[in-house]
Amino acid sequence: MTMTDNDVQKQIKHMMAFIEQEANEKAEEIDAKAEEEFNIEKGRLVQQQRLKIMEFYERKEKQVELQKKIQSSNMLNQARLKTLKFRDDHVDTVLEEAKGRLTTIIQDREKYSAILQSLLTQGLCQLLETKATVRCRQADHQLVESIMPAAIAEYKTMVGKDCVLKIDTNNWLRQDTIGGLEVLNEKGKIKIDNTLEARLNMISQQILPDIRSTLFGANPNRKFID
Fold first, then answer.
1. Scanning 35, 55, 105, 126, which has its CA 20 to 30 A from the CA of 140?
2. How many Cα atoms occupy the beta-carbon half-sphere of 171 within 13 Å?
């Protein structure tokens, strides 16, 4: 059967329509695939950026938390230092009051004379010398001279030694010294500081923990008590 030109044209159109349909389907398939891959890639990038943002803010949060801890620690340390300074100032005030009361002691000549004799005897016992020099305030010169024989006798009774004493009239104790005396060996290289200030400082260091405990209560951080 011979095909007419019309039939050929129809068949060509049919084939072209088929090819075009197939091409459109293929194009749609490619578009769908591309859209799917785009969405997957977009989702991956979004998730990646989300994780980066989360990590960034987690780091920021940790930094803020660390800064808060540092600031809190600094403030706590400052508060502790202020508390310690307040306590030290208060203790110093108590010691200054005690020092001030020493001035009333020297006004009682009988009591002060007994104290000087005791301080001189103690100084001699610490030196254990047969010759010694006494330094005192110029205002106490006569009083110290008067108690020297009794102090020497007491020293001899205690250690079985005699001692020749002299007062250093070339080097008086400072004018602002409350009272007491210093005892030196013959060459002046060894000195026993038995001024009232020195004795107060020595005693205050020994009883300082008790003073703090009395004023502020027991220290909860102290593990050992002598």
1. 126
2. 10
pLDDT in tens, 91-146: 667 667 766 677 788 888 999 999 999 999 999 999 999 999 999 999 999 999 99
**Alpha-carbon distances, residue 20 vs 31, 110, 206 (angstroms):** 16, 134, 109
Q: Which of 143, 123, 125, 142 is nearest to 133 (CA)?
A: 123
For the four alpha carbons of 8, 14, 17 and 22, in that order, the dihedral sign comes to negative
Structure tokens at 28: 């749609």
Query: What whole-number distance in Å separates Cα of residue 15 and Cα of residue 177?
Result: 128
Helix (H, G, I), strand (E, B) or coil at 193: strand
**Domain 102-208 top-level CATH class:** alpha beta
Q: How far is CA 73 from CA 62, 80, 91, in A?
A: 16, 10, 27
Predicted model pTM: 0.55
How is the chain split into domains, by residue range?
102-208
3-state helix, strand, coil in the chain (%, to 5): 70, 10, 20
Amino acid identity of residue 159, one-letter, is V
Q: Answer left, alpha or beta for residue 180, where phi above 0 means left and psi between -120 and 50 means alpha.
A: left
Provide the CB-side half-sphere exposure for 74 (13 A, CA): 6
